[in-house]
Amino acid sequence: MTLPSSTQVLIVGAGPNGLACAITLLTLGIKPIVVDDRSERPYGAKGCLIHARTLEVLKTVGLSDSLKDIGIQSKGIIFYGKANPLFNVDIAALSSLTEFPYILLTPQSEAELIFEKFLVERGVEMIKNTKVIGFVENPAEGLHVSFEDGSSIIASYVVGADGARSTVRSLAGISFKDPFTNLMYDENPSSASFMLFTLADVFLNLNPSIHIPRETISWHLNGRIMFCPLELPEKLRHLCKENTSFWRIAIAIPPGSRSIPPRHPDQAYLQNEINERNPWKEPIHLDHLYTAATYRVRSAVAETFFKTVGNGKVLLVGDSAHVHSPSGGQGMNLGICDAVTLGRAIAEHIESGNDAVLSDYSSKRKATAIQVIQATKHMTAIINISNGWRRRIANILMYVASWLTPIRRRVAQRLAGLTYRD
Predict the structure, then answer these.
(1) Is residue 392 part of a domain?
(2) Which of 298, 309, 315, 404 is nearest to 365 (CA)?
(3) Whether residues 138 and 172 fall in one domain
(4) Which residue of 123, 170, 205, 418 could cross-link 285, Cys pair, CB 3.0 to 4.6 Å?
(5) What are the entry keywords (predicted)?
């Protein structure tokens, strides 16, 4: 598809957040242009949890039913010490509060395919291999956006959905830092200064004596390892052998560890980590590694999610606006909720011309992002406690808290995103 000379709304980034914003606009009668600097959609070990609040929001744009068919409806998350359960975050117990009392487990790439299909069927295509490199303020209309291939477009609204290293955010001159430490996102880049998470999608062959439930996510705190069951995508069925099943595993590496995992760990590395961390005496065999990546745990939020640049409006969603620990799987969820809210705000602004609509989007979504960052910091701190007497005390406190219904329910509501309803 060739870029037109102008558009009302330009969305930069065709991940779940950019696509969700485009879908929302389309349902409101506004056809955006979506560009992405990639040539194809990578599978990657990215988000895989879609929470109740996100499904509620996606229902309003007609997507929740399509998503339910591509994933596992998990009852929640169980935290263990070794193999002993400590705290059950029981999402299934929230059936009186939401239509979606579960965590939908599906790779982010599968959700993106559903979103993209929705748009393509309605005439919105993704323009790929199109990298934004500059803004020029246009005195007559909108914002002149230039691309690496020499093309350009004039847009009234530019939505930055282009990730943590957002070009849109950078070009708009919006700062990006931790709201609690004031550390800029790119400061102190040494891996030794950060907690690391290795995420991998793998095929496991489990000894019959080992039971890892496929109806819940299992976090083993003493070993700092998580097992999350995933529905097997059709394109991977040829890799699945008899007696194997498909999983997302997460391995947490605390700051200052002597051993720093590779950026893209291989099967031998992951097998060794599973051997050392799993709480059972019997081994877990990693039959096949599909994809793996290691991420530094950093938190940051944009100074503002809305800025007027010349005669154009620059708006941020998802990782362009906020990043945080993957603990609790909140990243994709927070971004999708941003995106649907922003789509409605843009439509309202087109109708009214009142900048207060966009400022309200920015202030409310930033406040929610800071709450999520704080919650994920707390969860990461719990995972990060070293084995020894501190770990034992923390485990005891979690076990005691599990008997207190109000605490269990509050934790479940927060994880499900129900506390962030407008």
Answers:
(1) no
(2) 315
(3) yes
(4) 205
(5) FAD, Flavoprotein, Oxidoreductase
